[in-house]
């Protein structure tokens, strides 16, 4: 029986295989993508850490492992692989199924809007619709609906920075701004520091350990961005294994998912400069937030991948609460 047709032994979890056998038989990127996508689908993996389906996950694992651009699969499909490359790919595909860890953890790399970031299990895998908003010229840019002149933004606060990805994207979006990036987890800040240094932004992005705005007495900002924990208790209990690999502290938002969001909404006005605003992601917590703050005048935003999961509220609106 060929490796491509080899089955699995009785009691072996779906999708698992002998990595050595497949490393010996599969020789091109195309063959590995087909094989990985098939095995991932058979194993019933969960996605959402940068990919949405088995084929995209396969492409990411293979291209990133080969140090190829992750958006250039077609150009490399017929590339012949060395035996060392084949062995590495087979081992990674096997590990993705056996451990159920997000591929980003196995490869220590994740991407947002084409920007790469180091990640490991000390932080959640970076993903936020706020990144799309920062890159939308209709919202942030000359004449933008939220920020019409990025060059005039001088101070930005990123609450719950995790890997530092949004703080870095903010620094790139607002070229004259300094960014304070706060997180309660010292481990997360160690990861963020590595990313900040990789981007050469250590002079503009300050990493601060603390609980939301607690360490920021007297500081005000032109913009506050926040992608806090917002998974409600029922959803936390039903998380698939991939998400259980991430730090629970970075996901769990309390019974209704808005414990941290509510604290941010209440405290933001005191740290916003005149004309400033809060850009906050709440996942599926809009209804709970509106019930908790019926007087909140918020602008709910849409992105390519979301509707009503991120809101904007300016200092005036937040001061009325």
What is the CATH homology-level superfamily of the largest domain?
A: Vaccinia Virus protein VP39
Q: Give the terminus-to-terminus CA distance.
A: 69 Å
Largest sheet: 7 strands, mixed
The count of β-strands is 9
Structure explained in plain terms:
- With about 325 residues, the chain is of the alpha/beta class.
- The protein has 2 domains: about 100 residues, no CATH class; about 200 residues, Rossmann fold (3-Layer(aba) Sandwich).
- The protein is built from 13 helices and 9 strands.
- It has a 7-stranded mixed beta sheet, with helices on both faces. It has a two-stranded antiparallel ribbon with strand order 1-2.
Q: Strands, helices and their partners?
A:
Blueprint: H1 19-25, H2 29-43, H3 54-65, H4 83-99, H5 103-107, E1 110-112, E2 115-117, H6 129-134, E3 155-159, H7 165-173, E4 178-183, H8 186-198, E5 205-209, E6 221-226, H9 233-237, H10 241-244, H11 259-268, E7 272-281, H12 286-292, E8 299-303, E9 306-314, H13 315-319
Parallel strand pairs: 3-4, 3-6, 4-5, 6-7
Antiparallel strand pairs: 1-2, 7-9, 8-9
